[in-house]
Design a protein that fits this description.
The complex is a heterodimer of chains A (about 290) and B (about 270). Chain A has 2 domains: about 35 residues; about 200 residues, MetI-like (MetI-like fold, Orthogonal Bundle), CATH 1.10.3720. The longest helix of chain A has about 40 residues. The N terminus and C terminus of chain A are likely disordered. Helix content of chain A is about 75%, strand content about 0%. The two termini of chain A are about 50 Å apart. Chain A has about 290 residues and is mainly α. Chain A has 11 helices and no strands. In chain A, helix 3 packs across helix 6, helix 3 packs across helix 10 and helix 5 crosses helix 6. Chain A is flat. Chain B is globular and about 45 Å long. In chain B, strand 1 and strand 2 form a beta hairpin. In chain B, helix 3 packs across helix 4. Chain B has 2 domains: about 190 residues, Rossmann fold; about 60 residues, no CATH class. Classes of the chains: A mainly alpha (about 290), B alpha/beta (about 270). Chains A and B meet through helix 7, helix 8 and helix 11 of A and strand 6 and helix 3 of B. Chain B: One of its GO terms (molecular function) is ATP binding. Chain B: This is ABC transporter ATP-binding protein.
């Protein structure tokens, strides 16, 4: 069908809309510069921290058996790369499995709670109780129940990551525009259709902010599980190094552990950008949480 | 055309003598823990098929509640509401609804927001897309159909909401202060467009508004409501032709007498806007 208006310009092109022009996609070099311009401050702070660390150890302000030099720490990371890689992977594996279970159970629990206030009233105090019980205190119990394998680590990771997932998903599902739900009713949509097409997608921005908290907590959970009793994982590495007064290895373990947390956090953030481009663009590109 | 469309057209015409919308001695009571609020009392209103009726009244008089009753989104405490002679007992599918806020899904483009109506109703895809294209042209959205809500101005968003409400050719269109959040100029423009769309579609329209000028310019009849508990104070016939030029209409004797009468009823000073 032709519309007879301004036939010289393709009607569907956004560039033809008054005052709106598609911006050219920046090249790789430009984008790298942009990223650098955005992230130089946190990078500079990180470098400054390393510099302070280096000065402290080089000037022997603290004994090396208390704080190792950056050099000896890097040395250990290089020499024992296979060892660290193996245990790092165990911790990552426990974290990811715990996180995945926490997300699946948390989202399901949130959906049920939002649709049934009876379930919500019944479940909420239990959830809160599970949240306030210090996980470190009950972790030994899981070792007694589940043994020294990865099961107790995953359970601790799930318990610690579960709460932010539930809370954010409940908030997301409840924050849907009530007029949108009424509109859906006048369209003859049933509860399932309304959930799939309106409620669930609308709740995703909230869910993702919960997921970012949850994924970093899951790392903590896995390591706490390892502290209590393990023969694998970074928690185990740190405990061993501590026992041997091997501070370079201890520091290496800490650095790898933090890196795992940061990488997982960034992965969740990338997933958010890919899945919710509408949300990211509404927030505006100038406001970004990635460095 | 499609079955869905034939059905709604048949509904619009097949109602016979029954009014498109019939509100019969309705009262609505809201119960909260502390208070018992009587929102509407003794409301009776009959709207003929193809008629444009505007509802004006002070804030909180229950205008929106009245629209929700007609849509079946609320149950009256007493009395009855009928659409084409058929008692309203639950949410009605044979209406289109437009809210003050556009209520668009942020993750869908304008066109896909319009087509949500078709998806929910399981309308045949090709016919729905063709209808969406017609409406996009009719409301001047051409060129913006692939834009996302956050990229659209308030007026454009409201046009999308209007297209979505008209996609299934509803015999009755309910509008709850649809232009209340727009600036004055955009609002006038939307008024002119709504008048044309109403003439082109022949839909029965029930419009809630705060603007007396908007009510008189658009409607065949204006229902003036009292403060809470809301009831019908008076129904004013607007003796203007269906096709109305905006600026010209504003200057007509009929227009000013109707607006003055409504202002008096609402207790505003004569001539005050």
């Amino acid at each position: 069908m032709e519309h007879g208006r301004t036939p010289t310009v393709p009607a569907a092109s956004a560039a033809t809309v008054a005052g709106v022009a598609e911006r050219a996609r920046p090249g790789i070099a430009d984008r790298a510069l942009e990223t650098l311009a955005r992230s130089w401050r946190p990078l500079a702070l990180l470098v400054a921290c390393f510099a302070v660390w280096w000065v402290v150890s080089a000037a022997r302000l603290v004994e090396p058996y208390l704080v190792p030099s950056p050099g000896s720490t890097l040395q250990v990371m290089r020499d024992k790369a296979g060892y660290i890689w193996h245990h790092g992977w165990v911790t990552t594996y426990e974290t990811l499995l715990g996180f995945a279970i926490a997300v699946a159970v948390g989202v399901l629990a949130a959906v049920i709670m939002v649709y049934s206030s009876t379930v919500e009233k019944t479940l909420y105090p239990v959830l809160l109780f599970a949240q306030v019980v210090p996980k470190i205190a009950i972790a030994p119990l899981f070792i007694v129940w589940l043994g020294f394998g990865i099961a107790p680590k995953i359970v601790v990771a799930v318990l610690i990551a579960f709460f932010p997932v539930v809370i954010s998903m409940v908030t997301g599902l409840k924050s849907v525009d009530p007029e949108m739900v009424q509109l859906s009713a006048t369209m003859g949509a049933g509860p399932l259709q309304t959930f799939v097409k309106i409620r669930f997608p609308a709740s995703l921005p909230h869910l993702f902010s919960g997921l970012k908290v949850a994924v970093t907590l899951a790392v903590t959970g896995a390591v706490v599980g390892e502290f209590v009793g393990a023969n694998e994982g970074l928690g185990f590495v740190i405990l061993q190094a501590n026992g041997n007064l091997d501070t370079p290895m201890l520091f290496a373990g800490l650095i790898v552990m933090s890196l795992i947390g940061v990488v997982l956090f960034l992965l969740v953030e990338i997933a958010e950008k890919l899945l919710l481009p509408w949300h990211a663009s509404r927030r505006g590109d100038a406001v970004t949480t990635t460095y | 055309m499609t079955e869905e469309v034939e059905q709604t057209v048949a509904l619009a015409e097949g109602g016979g003598d029954a009014a498109a919308v019939d509100v019969d001695d309705v009262a609505v009571r809201f119960r909260t823990r502390k208070k018992d609020v009587l929102a509407l009392r003794q409301i009776s209103l009959s709207v003929a098929t193809g008629e444009f009726v505007a509802i004006v009244g002070p804030s909180g008089c229950g205008k929106s509640t009245l629209l929700k009753l007609v849509a079946g989104l609320l149950k009256p405490s007493s009395g009855a509401v009928r659409l084409h002679g058929d008692a309203v007992t639950g949410p009605r599918r044979d209406i289109g609804y437009v809210f003050q806020r556009a209520a668009l899904l942020e993750w869908r483009s304008a066109r896909r927001n319009i087509l949500l109506q078709a998806e929910m109703r399981h309308m045949p895809g090709a016919a729905a897309r063709k209808r969406a294209d017609e409406l996009i042209d009719m409301t001047g959205l051409r060129g913006f159909e692939d834009a996302y809500p956050h990229e659209l101005s308030g007026g454009m968003q409201q046009r999308v909401a209007l297209c979505r409400a008209l996609l299934h050719r509803p015999p009755v269109l309910l509008m709850d202060e649809p232009f209340g959040a727009l600036d004055a100029l955009t609002r006038e423009q939307m008024n002119i467009e709504l008048n044309r769309i109403w003439r082109e579609t022949g839909t029965t329209v029930l419009l809630v508004t705060h603007s007396i000028a908007e009510a008189v310019y658009l409607a065949n009849r204006v229902v003036v409501m009292s403060a809470r508990p809301g009831t019908v104070t008076e129904i004013i016939d607007v003796a203007l032709p269906a096709e109305r030029d905006y600026a010209e209409t504003m200057g007509l004797e009929e227009f000013s007498s109707a607006t003055t009468r409504i202002r008096r009823l609402l207790g505003a000073a004569p001539g005050a806007e």
